[in-house]
Amino acid sequence: MKLKINSILILIATMTPIGAASAHPHVWVVVRSEVVFAPDGKIAGVRHAWEFDELYSAYAVQGLGKDGKPPTSEELAPLAKTNVESLAEFDFFTFAKQNGAKLAFKPPENVKLEANDKKLVTMRFFLPLETPVAVKKPFSFQVYDPTYFVSFGLEKQNAVTLAGAPAGCSLSLVEPAPLLATDNQKLGEAFFQNMSPGSDFGVKLATRAIVACP
């Protein structure tokens, strides 16, 4: 992912006006997520489908596919493997909490990259919790890049769903508060290049999904 992101940044700089490439983000992802329950009623993990923007997708599929057709998942498998290995460093851009405590995830499973007829690339994977959790207290998660290099936005409809949830469980989405004028002024490249380690700007723009069960 690092190699891809660095390369895509160069590609963006050569394809966009000077002013447009000076602000974050540089990659856009549409997110669909599913909170997966185990048979015992505990949350087992989160299943993601991330659709990448046209520019990143074009870069990812270049040289792949035959006769103008999109590449197969088999052709995209090496890139899927590279992405997953690199995403571990960034906590898979998925941050879950329960009762104020951060929850850890295990390495993703069933990782797959697909390209549709428009050659837009979607990455699908299941992210299992290190320890499944009972929903005696609300469970929440957000998908975002702390550095805001990548913009993660939820699908407009049915962005987050529940799979195998016990009766009575509910899902709500809490939208982030609008950025202050001072925050908007920070979105230039220089701000992010000088961002201190551990800074978490992306959380200000991330929707929180909250699951509650009786």
Question: Describe it for me?
Answer:
With about 210 residues, this protein is of the alpha+beta class. The chain contains 5 helices and 11 strands. It has helices at about 1-15, 55-60, 75-85, 180-185, 190-195; strands spanning about 25-35, 45-50, 95-100, 100-105, 110-115, 120-135, 140-145, 150-155, 160-165, 170-175, 210. Strands 1, 2, 5, 6, 8 and 9 form a 6-stranded mixed β-sheet that branches. Strands 4-3-7-11-10 form a 5-stranded antiparallel β-sheet, with no helix packed on it. The chain is globular and about 55 Å long. It starts with a helix and ends with a strand. About 25% of the residues are buried.
Which helices and strands appear, and what pairs or packs with what?
Blueprint: H1 2-15, E1 27-37, E2 43-52, H2 54-61, H3 73-87, E3 94-98, E4 101-103, E5 109-115, E6 121-133, E7 139-143, E8 150-154, E9 160-163, E10 170-174, H4 181-184, H5 189-193, E11 208-212
Parallel strand pairs: 1-8, 1-9
Antiparallel strand pairs: 1-2, 2-6, 3-4, 3-7, 5-6, 7-11, 10-11
Helix pairs in contact: 1-2
Q: What would a concise description of this structure say?
A:
The protein has 214 residues and is an alpha+beta fold.
Structural class: alpha+beta
- Envelope shape: globular
Count the beta strands: 11
Instruction: Estimate percent helicity.
Output: 10-25%
What oligomeric state do these chains adopt? single chain
Annotated CATH architecture: Distorted Sandwich
Element order, helices and strands? HEEHHEEEEEEEEHHE
CATH top-level class:
Mainly Beta
Mean pLDDT equals: 83
Unreliable segments of 5+ consecutive residues: 1-22
- Write down the CATH topology: Acetylcholine Binding Protein, Chain: A
Major β-sheet profile: 6 strands, mixed
